[in-house]
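PROTEIN DESIGN WORKSHEET
SECTION A - STRUCTURE
LENGTH: 315
TOKENS:
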């Protein structure tokens, strides 16, 4: 990286502007991931470190209110682009050091005394542009319900507006799919080996009347405890919704299960019209028409996918 930096300086005669600025088209920290420190009452820092052949870093310091306080998340806003100008507080900083650097250099309230900075460029202009999208936390089982994506029933079994691949309760009976696919000792199964209490060929996790008693699973509950798996809806270790001899049911149920799934947020940071100035007093400036600072991937977080709130009616 340092070699590229100085080679670019040698090409100044070919790339100089009339005002003496240097235009550089590429300035990458190859394979370096963006890391972050939480705000903790001070501007948030996003940074990349390179320790191959040279000890260097590039960082974005910002107090923009659209940026999350958490170190593990940039933003969860996928609808709007975050855009702000660089200034004395929101700035890009490129440094070269005389030794190895770690995350502590950026994240401690007081930076360590070593290594020493031997070269520094700070932004004197530019606009930060951040776009964000969701990223699947589990590529093989998006909703984490225990049914792999390639085995999920196509479509939306319970017509709640959430595709089965994203639905933690595929049949909408208020019993989690991951609970309904669990086979206990002696449980009836269908030809595919899936738990099928009433032996109608439909696995429990897609069957809204698991025991086939004519009463929908969702309604085989008590007024005060409206989830079928609540302790009050279990007798002799058998839930009412799995017991054909229990046919009492409510006519209306208000309890619902929030459809929470694991996800991540991937943010792309670009700096438009970035201008960096050497801090050695020489006034040297480096310019980029568009600098790709990089991609920041959040830790896994829970999000709620809302349903259309349709409530099935008891027969």
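SECTION B - SEQUENCE
RESIDUE ASSIGNMENT:
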């Amino acid at each position: 990286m340092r070699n590229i930096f100085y080679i670019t300086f040698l090409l100044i005669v070919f790339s100089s502007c009339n005002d003496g600025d240097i235009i550089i088209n590429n300035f990458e920290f190859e394979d370096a991931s963006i890391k972050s420190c939480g705000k903790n009452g001070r501007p948030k820092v996003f940074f990349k470190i390179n320790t191959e052949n040279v000890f260097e870093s590039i960082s974005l310091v910002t107090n923009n209110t659209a940026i999350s306080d958490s170190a593990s998340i940039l933003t969860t806003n996928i609808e709007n682009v975050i855009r702000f100008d660089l200034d004395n507080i929101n700035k890009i900083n490129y440094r070269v050091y005389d030794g190895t650097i770690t995350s502590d250099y950026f994240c401690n309230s007081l930076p360590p005394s070593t290594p020493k900075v031997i070269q520094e460029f700070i932004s004197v202009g530019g606009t930060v542009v951040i776009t964000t999208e969701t990223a699947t936390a589990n590529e093989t089982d998006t909703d984490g319900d225990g049914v792999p994506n390639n085995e999920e029933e196509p479509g939306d079994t319970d017509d709640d507006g959430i595709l089965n691949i994203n639905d933690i309760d595929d049949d909408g009976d208020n019993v989690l799919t991951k609970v309904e696919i669990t086979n206990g000792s002696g449980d009836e199964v269908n030809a595919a080996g899936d738990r099928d209490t009433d032996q109608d060929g439909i696995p429990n996790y897609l069957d809204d009347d698991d025991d086939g008693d004519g009463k929908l699973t969702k309604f085989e509950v008590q007024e005060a405890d409206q989830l079928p798996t609540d302790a009050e809806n279990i007798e002799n270790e058998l839930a009412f919704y799995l017991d054909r001899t229990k046919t009492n049911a409510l006519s209306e149920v208000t309890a619902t299960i929030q459809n929470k799934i694991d996800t991540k947020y991937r943010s792309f940071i670009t700096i438009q019209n970035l201008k960096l100035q050497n801090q050695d007093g020489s006034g040297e400036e480096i310019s980029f028409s568009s600098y790709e600072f990089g991609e920041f991937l959040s830790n896994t977080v829970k999000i709620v996918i809302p349903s259309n709130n349709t409530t099935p009616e008891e027969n």
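SECTION C - NOTES
The first helix runs from residue 2 to 10.
Residues 134 and 265 are 5 Å apart (CA to CA).
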